[in-house]
Write a structure and sequence with these properties.
Elements: H1 5-12, H2 16-24, H3 32-45, H4 51-58, E1 63-68, H5 74-89, E2 93-98, H6 103-115, E3 120-123, H7 131-146, E4 150-154, E5 162-166, H8 168-181, E6 186-191, H9 197-212, E7 216-221, H10 226-239, E8 245-248, H11 251-263, E9 273-278, H12 281-285, E10 289-292, H13 295-307, E11 317-320, E12 323-325
Helix pairs in contact: 1-2, 1-3, 2-3, 2-4, 5-13, 6-7, 8-9, 10-11
Length: about 325
């Protein structure tokens, strides 16, 4: 079996990017002891450098690929805006790949980005909890890194990769405590993609806070869209009329719920409180209570990490804060059906 760059890095006890810099002739500074270990490992293993990978490094590719779940989701579009902020300042070209959260499509787009010698890949929808996704995405990231690229994930991926994360669980707990302080004990949750780690974390935080006060969550699963929130609000309230608050795991679901309540003459928040997550721009206009994520900053930070030298000894993880923004759509729970 042919020796690859990862084998050399493992033998030398350094990261793949460090081994790549030494063996490619890059002028990026590497400590002399690390350089010597890499060269010794390469000789011992009879490593023959990949000419295409070296060309990638020497060619200074000025392109960024961004893998997003769907470009019409405000969550992803604002992250892309953050990536573009940094890319524009650095004169980088950005390619956006819409995966629709399809595993095969996301992996194929990543492969195509690598084939086109893309220098940096931001995996914005990385939190899919699926064994095949974890295994195949991990292999793709290792291949991309070994060829000289740099990948950064946004979210809590199950693979070993630098990442930008947010405290979804903590933000959800804040929202749950806010609702219980207002007297809500029966809370309906409009749940987006259940296999995404951010959704799992938000449910965990809500459940912990609501159940700590003896409350109950009533769940309705669906797509993270306005229409799904609209339909789901009606279904939840028909099945559980005791519900006094509705929460969407994405703002657009909460916005759909607001529309259903308005069209069915349910007063907000007097009869039903409504809240969401992400604090997208339109949520401010609608005075929706929401857990704010710094979406634009998440995208900008991910590309900044990708552009910085990779450390030798650990993954880079930057955690950004969440914030509960209380607005007019939440109020005291009604005391009668």
């Amino acid at each position: 079996m042919a020796v690859n760059l990862r084998d050399v890095a493992h033998r030398a006890g350094v990261s793949v990017p460090t081994a790549s810099r030494v063996l490619s002739g890059s002028d990026y500074p590497v400590a002399q002891d690390l350089r010597a270990r890499v060269l010794d490992a390469a000789r011992e293993l009879d490593y023959v450098p990949n000419a295409q990978a070296q060309a990638l490094l020497r060619g200074d590719p000025r392109t960024v690929g961004v893998l997003v779940g769907t470009v019409d989701d405000p969550y992803f579009s604002e992250i892309v805006n953050g990536v573009q902020d940094v890319a524009t300042a650095q004169h980088l070209l950005v390619t956006i790949c819409n995966t629709d959260r399809d595993i095969d499509r996301e992996l194929e787009y990543f492969r195509l980005l690598q084939a086109h010698r893309t220098g940096y890949v931001i995996v914005a929808g990385s939190g899919l909890v699926d064994p095949r996704y974890v295994a195949e995405m991990g292999a793709r990231i290792r291949s991309f890194t070994a060829s000289g690229g740099r990948a950064v994930a946004i979210g809590h991926p199950q693979v070993e990769v630098d990442r930008v994360v947010t405290d979804n669980t903590g933000g959800a707990e804040q929202l749950g405590r806010h609702l219980t302080a207002l007297g809500h004990r029966h809370v309906g949750v409009l749940v987006g993609v259940a296999s995404v780690s951010s959704t799992i974390e938000r449910l965990a935080g809500l459940r912990a806070a609501i159940q700590a006060k003896g409350g109950t969550l009533h769940l309705r699963h669906g797509e993270p869209t306005r229409d799904s929130g609209y339909t789901g609000a009606g279904e939840l309230l028909d099945a559980h009329p005791q519900i006094t608050a509705l929460v969407g795991t994405a703002d657009q679901m909460a916005i759909g719920a607001l529309s259903w309540l308005r069209e069915h003459d349910r007063r907000v928040p007097e009869q039903v409180s409504v809240a969401g997550f992400n604090d997208i721009a339109v949520s401010r206009d609608l005075q929706l209570t929401s857990v704010r994520l710094p979406l634009r900053q998440m995208g900008a930070t991910a590309l900044q990490i990708a552009l910085a030298p990779a450390p030798d000894d650990a993954l880079v993880q930057t955690e950004l804060p969440t914030e509960l923004v209380v607005r007019a759509t939440t109020g005291p729970a009604r005391t009668h059906p």
